Amino acid sequence: MRIDVGELLKAHTGDTRTYRLEDCDLAADGGRRFQVDGSAKLLRTTAGILVEAHLTVIARESCSRCLKEVDMPLAVEFEEEFLPTVDILTGAGLPPPDDPGALRIDAEQVLDLSEAVRQYRETALPMQPLCRPGCAGLCPTCGRDLNLGACSCPEEPADARWSALAELGRRARKS
Cβ contacts of residue 75 below 8 Å, gap of 6+? Predict the structure, then answer.
């Protein structure tokens, strides 16, 4: 997701370009890959280029209950300003920004959206991804997928300290 922004850096403040991103394949940490579709509007600012992105990211994740792989569509939207590393007219290096985490445009005037998309994808992921809302998970004893049916493991005897709470649960189910 690399965009040549040399001409936009030479343009007047306020000039814009819009790019359609289709079937972009990006790598995440751990070697996982994800697909990106959407649009990015680039606006020339006095300091650099402001990117306004509206994306759909298809992330392949493991269900937190049954561990099956599932494709999760995530809506990812962000606005970030990318700052140049060299002066577009002279080619001289520019001092680094005060923020060490600032997103940069490389020396060849190429803006790479990959890192910003990866970061915003991470924040859009649910804490515990599920293959479906009612996923039953795995049996903690034998590991059987309980979505396929009950396992034959014997029910563990309840700790006597929880008996009063278990009785309240039984009463609530009867009423």
Answer: 55, 56, 124
| Residue 51 sits in the same domain as residue 112 | yes
Q: Give Cα 27 distance to the centre of its chain.
A: 11
Average pLDDT over residues 129-149: 91
Query: CA 164, CA 118: separation in Å to the nearest integer?
Result: 48
Q: Read off the tokens for 106.
A: 């490389």
Q: Which residues contact 17 (CB under 8 A, 6 or more apart)?
A: 5, 8, 41, 42
CB contact at 8 A, 109 and 84: yes
Percent of the chain with pLDDT over 70: 94
The mean pLDDT of 44-55, rounded to a whole number, is: 95
**Domain range spanning residue 108?**
2-124
Mean pLDDT confidence for 48-71: 93
Cα separation, 165 vs 163, whole angstroms: 5
Cα(9)–Cα(13) distance, rounded to whole angstroms?
Answer: 9
> How far does CA 49 lie from the centroid of its chain?
22
Kind and range of the H or E element at 53? Answer: strand 49-62
Helix extents (H) in the chain: 6-10, 114-124, 163-174
User: Quick one: 91 and 175 in the same domain?
Assistant: no
Q: State the pTM of this model.
A: 0.75
For residues 121 and 30, the answer to whether their CB atoms sit within 8 Å is no
